[in-house]
Predict the structure.
Amino acid sequence: MEITLLRQASYRLFASLLLYPDEKRLDSIINAAALLDGEDEAFGRFVQASEVSTAGDSIFQRWKELLHQIRSLDKLAQHILPLQEEYTRLFITSRNGFCYPYEGAHLGHTSGTQRTVSLIQIENEYAQKGLVLSINELPDHVAVELEFMSFLCGKESNAGVAPDDIQKAKEVLQSELSFLNRHLGLWFPLFARKVISNHNGIYAIVSETAEGFIKYDRDFISAQVLTG
């Protein structure tokens, strides 16, 4: 698998895992994890291509543990109901918004006008890049932002090899890096730490894995932009 396709699928998997679990979504997650589980070599190339010089084994171990946890799930009620209860506790009825999965809750964009302006700016950014939201959530929900990164990786992957296409691919990489620097790279680590401190199951694992993945991806993209 190409690294760009690995990144696209990984961001989509993280996004799906951080949406409310139902039978259809869980089935899709299990299938996606099964496809990614055989991509150790591609994941290794992704880690090696990153500018991050330490903890490569750690992110790989977390990645494999996440896929293992997903494989242990199934769409039977005895697994779905506990997941739904834990998702609700962590992300919907979270006390004082501690683990709310929204950028604004972690960067202080909570007042009426400030929140509205922030949401409009993010939604406009999606529209400018051609993303039509398919997730019934606010634009700054963690799953929507992760899905946007997956969308951008898809655009990058679809670029050809002609000079104009290579330039377009570089522009997409720059958009990815900018979005991580201004959004997920800023607030996802705060969100992940809060989830981990309140949970020791799959949501802690996905939050920790995604946090590490975002760190590696930001450095990977930076390296690609510099050498492109």
